[in-house]
Amino acid sequence: MSFATFSILAALAATVSAHGYVNNASIGGVSYTGYQPYQDPYTSPLPDRIFRAIQGNGPVEDLTSIDIQCGGYTAGGIVGSSPAKLTAGPVAAGSKVDLYWTLWPESHMGPVITYMALCPGGDCTTFEPESDAVWFKVQEAGRTGTSDVWASDAIEKAGGFLSYTIPSCLTPGSYLVRHEVIALHAAYAYPGAQFYPSCHQIKVTGSGTTTPSSLVSFPGAYKATDPGITYDAYKASAYTIPGPALFTCGGSAGSAASSVSSSASAPGATSVASNSTIPAITTSAAVIETAAPIASVAPTTLQTLVQTSSAAPVASAAPEAAADDC
């Protein structure tokens, strides 16, 4: 192999490894393969998933684009907001969901945020939020003080997985979940922050009676001037997680047996909440079924990230094409 060829391949590999997406999930003790952007479009028949389509391992950078909602590439014909065929569950409110990511570079530091939206009529397979305000935040984690420890570190150091907990007080029903990592390595000016969102569909059971009423839209929840969007991650300064306040049972805006409103305005950015930590991760699923095996890992918290330098790497589900930018 010539030096020139080797250099090109090395550069391509570096670009590919610079991005990631949710490869699979453990929900209610059942494992689900995520949307595989480099396999599914070329498979016949198209595999049925609980995850909506994503354009690949590259980011969304335009806050005004519908692609910010679920990670599509509308200009290229991939509408990420289009419903998936399946819905995961049933899963009890109060349960923890584990999401396993592909490889993620330490240089792409940033927050991890998860939102949910109640699907009208109990059916997510026909629900497209469009620009309606339907989303409430159920998980957020950012920077530990002014240190170099970020929530995104868990993807690399916890073996590739992140978690969120379904609020125990939620009204039973089908929900669309929007989970994202925001990479801030180039966020000192806008556009610069890189958004890696994806959406999956779950059916929640339980005896809860609360439907959050303080809702936001995507696009709309974030603005270019938000301190959590335009931010110099290389300075030792406190970080403000973007988006609305975190919804908590009994502690945030919600109403008993109320319907989802599509007219709520997006609140401004809020400070890091005291409970904004990566939760301890355990998985009830014995086997995670993916196109490639995933290394097992020990339960990890944000505290242990400071003490642990690395964990077993996660195998990518498929050879990945290079994205536009790192």
Protein model, in words:
The protein has 326 residues and is mostly beta strands. Helices cover 9% and strands 20% of the residues. It is built from four helices and eleven strands; from the N terminus they run αββαββββαβββββα. It has a five-stranded mixed β-sheet with strand order 3-9-8-5-6. Strands 2-1-4-7 form a four-stranded antiparallel β-sheet. A hairpin with a 2-residue loop joins β1 and β2. The chain is globular and about 45 Å long. It starts with a helix and ends in a 19-residue tail after the last helix. The N terminus and C terminus are likely disordered.
List the helices and strands and how they pair.
Blueprint: H1 3-17, E1 22-27, E2 30-33, H2 67-70, E3 88-92, E4 96-101, E5 112-118, E6 136-141, H3 153-157, E7 161-165, E8 173-183, E9 194-205, E10 210-211, E11 255-256, H4 302-307
Parallel strand pairs: 3-9
Antiparallel strand pairs: 1-2, 1-4, 4-7, 5-6, 5-8, 8-9, 10-11
Tags for this model:
326 residues; mainly beta; disordered N terminus
For the largest sheet, list the strands in their spatial order.
3-9-8-5-6
SSE-based structural type: mainly beta
Query: Element order, helices and strands?
Result: HEEHEEEEHEEEEEH
> Which blocks of ≥5 consecutive residues have pLDDT under 50?
1-18, 257-325
Helix content: under 10%
EC number: 1.14.99.56
Keywords: Carbohydrate metabolism, Cellulose degradation, Copper, Disulfide bond, Glycoprotein, Metal-binding, Monooxygenase, Oxidoreductase, Polysaccharide degradation, Secreted, Signal
Signal peptide: 1-18
Family: Belongs to the polysaccharide monooxygenase AA9 family.
